[in-house]
């Protein structure tokens, strides 16, 4: 079996909290995964268990030693998830905070030159680059993304990169368009002209769709937000190359070389990411005969991508006797209808209908989606399209075609 069957989907859904109902409003379809994915039941249980433990790491007692072992295992699990046999796993306050720290260290640790990013980036990386390029005396150059497709290509980076690029950032997947970038190709385009550049990737939106492979990317930093990949709020997770870790950065005096963490971290945060990796391994084990953990993670990522492609196609083209969004009058799909870069997300606007009203109407019919406005979060994508806002419908592999049908039926009713 290489696809998510109806039987497997039932098993998958049983592993997540609040799949079918909101604890505040009751039954609903959850299509707001880009804002924060559903949480694994195992993560909920692990969080409660570790919240009750009074001991800290670094003490001379058995409980403290056990906590240290749990943290060490979580680092190994995270490295496996990232496919990063070298470098350091970094836990911080949030994904945004880790992007700021990595960008700051890269800018301050390199001489002059250029910080290269793109107009598609989330403000987490774009704001960090704007601030720290100025502080470090570098020029901040932005590669233009393609408005029609919602992507920034390796070719666009290649046309903009110069030998004096010291730091570069890449957005793996856009939380507005839902389109994924070809990170290995973009990194190769940068390295071809500026081989010593420190390259940092924002993988926050991409992580829940699987398929992170540091070994294939040739980058120096990669950051995710675990609450968007089935864990919980309260921490960020990243990977930093040995080269990036060796640069001067905030650390306690006398701390081990290359150490990133500041203060005592929550052991439960580390442990919950082990739960996430264990889930990916379990899912891959249902899809392949492979016994090697990384092979199972890769099988899970492939199946997740395929299942979400089926769901987004149904949402755009229709399912059963229900027309898709592409067939509904006045609906415009951000990034186009037929876009192979799409990852589990469809954003759209309806002529003459404010998106905030559509989101509220869908909510009244039990469909949880989100509005993106042309503000500091999404204006870089929506303003060039002349759109004040859009409706974002974000899916995940635990969603079903029946839920897509419920959404399309609700849209038919709202649009009349």
From TrEMBL:
GO molecular function: lyase activity
Keyword Metal-binding listed: no
Keyword entries, A-Z: Lyase, Pyridoxal phosphate
Lyase is among the record's keywords: yes
Coiled-coil residue windows: none
InterPro entries the UniProt entry points to: Aminotrans_V_dom (IPR000192), PyrdxlP-dep_Trfase (IPR015424), PyrdxlP-dep_Trfase_major (IPR015421), PyrdxlP-dep_Trfase_small (IPR015422)
Residue ranges constituting the Aminotransferase class V domain according to the UniProt record: 29-407
Matches recorded under PANTHER family: CYSTEINE DESULFURASE
Protein's name according to its UniProt entry: Selenocysteine lyase/Cysteine desulfurase
Organism: Salipiger thiooxidans
